[in-house]
Amino acid sequence: MSFKRWILPPLDKDKAAALAEECEIHPFLALMLHLRGIDSAEEAVEYVVGNDLDDDPYAFADMDAAVERIQRALDSGEKIAVYGDYDCDGVTSTALLYDYLKKQGADVCYYIPEREGEGYGMHCSSVDTLSERGVNLIITVDNGIAAVEEVAYAAQKGMDVVVTDHHMPPDTLPRAVAVVDPHRADCASRCKDYAGVGVAFKLVCALEGDADTVAEEYGDLVALGTLADVMPLTGENRKLVRIGLRRITEGARPGIKCLAQVAGTWGKEASATSVAFTLAPRINAAGRMGSPEAAARLLMAQTEEEAEPLAQAVHQANIDRKTVEAAIQQEVWERFRACPSLLQDRVLVVEGENWHPGVIGIIAARILEQTGKPCLILSVGDGAEGRTAKGSGRSLRGFSLYEALAACSDMLDRFGGHELAAGVGLRADRIEEFRRRINQYAAEKFPSMPAPELRLDCRLRPSQIDLEKLSLLTALEPCGAGNPAPLFGLYRMRLDNITPVGAGKHLRLSLSRDGVRVSAVKFQTAPENFPVECGELLNLAVTLERNEYKGTVQPSVIIRDLRYADTDQEEILEALRCADSLRRGDPMTPDQARERLPDREGLATVYRFVRSREDWKGTLEQFVHQVKTPALGGVRIRVALEVLEEAGLISLEEDGDTLRLRVLPAQGKADLNQTPVMRRLHEAVGSTNAGDSNEQ
To answer: Does 694 score more than 70 pLDDT?
Structure first.
C-alpha cells in the first residue's frame, strides 16, 4: 500500500450538537451526519429513513418518446432487441429490461457484445446480426450515447433505436427515436448519477407507471449494477440500493441467491460492501474472461435448478480471472525490476505481450494502490492494421487521466474515460514516445504530483468503541461511493502484542491507551512483513464492523492504514518525491539541493544503522522513524540511501513501497562526494565539494 496523506475534515461541534437536539438523536450519530453535510432535521430524516422514489421518470428528456415507441412495439408485436454491455452494470441492465418486456408479452431478444472481438458499444456488424433476426426496435442499455454512426446505420436497415445510457453525451447525439440519458443538458432528472441499470429502471417505471412495484421486482438488479459501477450512493441511488439489498438478503432472485451461495455470503445480511466485493466481481468476471452470456442467463434464471450450474460457471470465471490477473501483475513487477527507471516516472506506462484485456484495468488499479502513481497497462498484439496496443488506466484524484490522454491525442488511435479511469489505443511503435509525452505533460502541469489521500471522519478515543456506536453506524448504510463507510483515527495507541491469525496471513494487534485495550485486525499482512515492534506508539485509521460469534456481538476493529505516532506525513511524501526526482535527473534549485544534501555525519549515521542490521526490510516511513535525528530528516535520509548505493556500500531494492537494504562487502575507501548524486547536489548548491572527503 502506498503512503497516503491522511486528511481530517473540519468539524463544527456546535452544528452537530444543534442537529442532535433538533432531531432528538444521539450526539455521535448527529456528528456522523454532520460530517456528511447533513445539518437539518429534514435532511437527516431523508438520509436515514427516506424510501420514497420521487425522481419522476418523465423528467428525463425523450422519456415520453421512448415509452410511446416501446408501447407501440408491444401493441403491434414487433421484435425488440435489448442491446447491452458485458460488464456487471450492462448485464444487470439487460436482464432487467429483457425480463420486464418478456413479462409484458413482447417478442424480445437480447444482444451483449463480447469484450474480445467486438468490444464495448454498438457495432454495425451487430446491427446486421439483429437485422437478420428480424428486429424492428433496438433498445440500448448502458451504452449507445456515442453511437451516432451505428444508429444511423440501423435506420438505413429499417430499424428504430431507443438509447438509454448514463455516460457523458458527445457534442452530437445519435439520431435515435429517443435518447434517455441523465447527463443530457436538457434532462430535468433530479439524480444525475444513475448507473446504466438505474436508467433502465426509470424507463421501466415510466412504462409501468408504478415505481414502487418495479423497485420490489427489480431492486436487487439495480443495487448490483449500481454498486458494481461504483456510482454515488446518494439521493435516489441510495434508496434503490437500500431496497435492493433487502431483496438480495431475502433471496428473491434465484440467480443472485445461487451466486451468493457459491461466493460464501448466503445466510448473511447483504451489505453494499459484500455485494460490491463478492457478487459484482463474479458477474464482471464472466464478461472479462470470455462471454457474458452465462452471467446474463444466471440473472434471468427462474429457478434455483436452472441457476446453480450458471452460478458455478460464473464463479469459475472469477477464479480464472484471479489466476490470470496474478500472473500479469507478476510480469509487471518483473518489468519494473528489470527497468527501474519505469517506476520513477510520474505516470507509469507498462506494456506486455497479449496481456488479457479483461483484467488490465484491475491491474492498473492495483499498481496505483501499491505505488501511489497514475498507471496505464497496455496489451500489445497483432491486429488487422499491424502491431497495436490497447490499454486501461487508473489515476488518483487531482490528476485527470482523461486530460493527460487528450494532451497526447495526436498520437493515439482512440481514447476515452474520465479523471480516474480511461482506456486508450495506439500503434505499438508509438509506446515509447507516448510514455515520454504523457510524463512530459505531467512534469509541466504537475511539478508536484498529487499524493494519494485517505479521508478520516474524526478521531475516536478507544473508550468510545462499543456496541452502541456500532449500532448507531447502521443508520449510515448503505455505504459506498459518495457515502463512504466511517473511517476513524485512533491516535497514539501503544502496540502491546502481535498475534498471527488465519494461518499466518493476517495479524491481530493488541493496543492500549488511557488504560483501555483494543484488539484490531490487519488483513493481508504476514508477521515478516510487519517490522513494527511492541512498545511503539501508533496512529491507526480503522473501520468498525459487526462481529457475531456464538450469539455474542462485538465491535470488530479493522485496520485500514497505520503509521508511527511521530510520523510527519509531509516529510515522508517529500522524501518519496525526492528519490524519484533525483533518479530522473530533474533540475533543482540551490535551496532544494541544500534541503536534500546530507552531511558527513548524516551519511555515517545511515550507514551505521544499515550495517548494524545487515539485512533490513520495511517502508521508508519505518526506516526514517528508526534512524531520524534532529539534524537528519526524512529527505536527507532517503538521499543518503541513494548515495550509499551509488558508492557500492549497500544494495537497495524496492518492491512497491517496501525497501530492502543490505550491506555489501567493503571494497576499500569510498569517496561519497564523488557519487553522481552528491556531485549534482553540490553543483546545484554552487560548491564543488562540501569540504569533507566523506570517505566511508
So the answer is: no
